[in-house]
Amino acid sequence: MPYSKICGAMVAALLSVATAGCATAQSKRQRTESPGLYNLTGWNGWTADINGEVGHRMHVGGPTARCMPSRKWSGEQRIVSGKLPPGLTMQLSSGDISGIPAERGHWILKVELYNVKCGGSTYKGLTQELRLHITGSGRVVQ
Known about the structure:
By secondary structure, the protein is of the alpha+beta class. The chain has one helix at residues 3-33; strands spanning 36-41, 49-53, 58-60, 64-68, 73-81, 88-90, 97-99, 105-118, 121-123, 126-135. The strands form three sheets. Strands 2, 5, 8, 9 and 10 form a five-stranded mixed beta sheet that branches. It has a three-stranded antiparallel beta sheet with strand order 3-7-6, with no helix packed on it. β6 (88-90) and β7 (97-99) form a beta hairpin.
């Protein structure tokens, strides 16, 4: 077989592999950028056990998500069962729990993210159990 035909066949094979790789990369990119809600995580990044100390400010981040293409998502939060330790409150707009605990003890509560929306579509929310462990001397630091 002449040298030019061998080289031509090799170049064609290499171009075929390179083109297939580009198509795969492009389809992955399209899949990633397609509209929808991604990376929905719960309170405190799914960590259920949360420690705090009486008299010291604490903050527990609410749920997070990534919405494509608008980057804006929304959802409503509520406490389904249990209650927060005295001194802590839940910000209903973000789901963040913050404040200064005023009492030692252990609290177990279930929190829910519902009515989740992204780009005009509604998505299933989530329910998560949180266990708050508050330690300390029992005195509130002013």
